[in-house]
Amino acid sequence: MVPPMHATRINVPAIEQADDPLEPVDYVCIAADLLQQMFFELQALSVTYDDLAAAMPSHDSEMRDRLWALSQIADDLVSINDQALAATLMAQAVVLISSLSADIDKLAAFASIDEGHAHSDGSTLH
Question: What is the DSSP secondary structure assignment for residue 19, as one 8-state letter?
Fold first, then answer.
């Protein structure tokens, strides 16, 4: 079983008010938090959308593992001082962010398919 992922690490209002530009590690942390939130939203939507509900089980465990790995990398990047190790972790984070983003897009398309079915059946979504 995958341990629970961390809650949001980034304080968005504080970032918006910061005078200093964000560091690459900040972007990794933001991406990890957003991807986790998007995944949880898709899980919640799977209750409503049949095609999404059917697709979720084949992606759920593997995506949770990758989200957890990304969260761990983000945590490590915040506290690491070794530049070589940081570069390696950053490269791993970029790969995970890219693959998770693509998979979340694919899953979100299942909700769009269901929405299209609802519209073609004459029903409307509000």
Answer: S
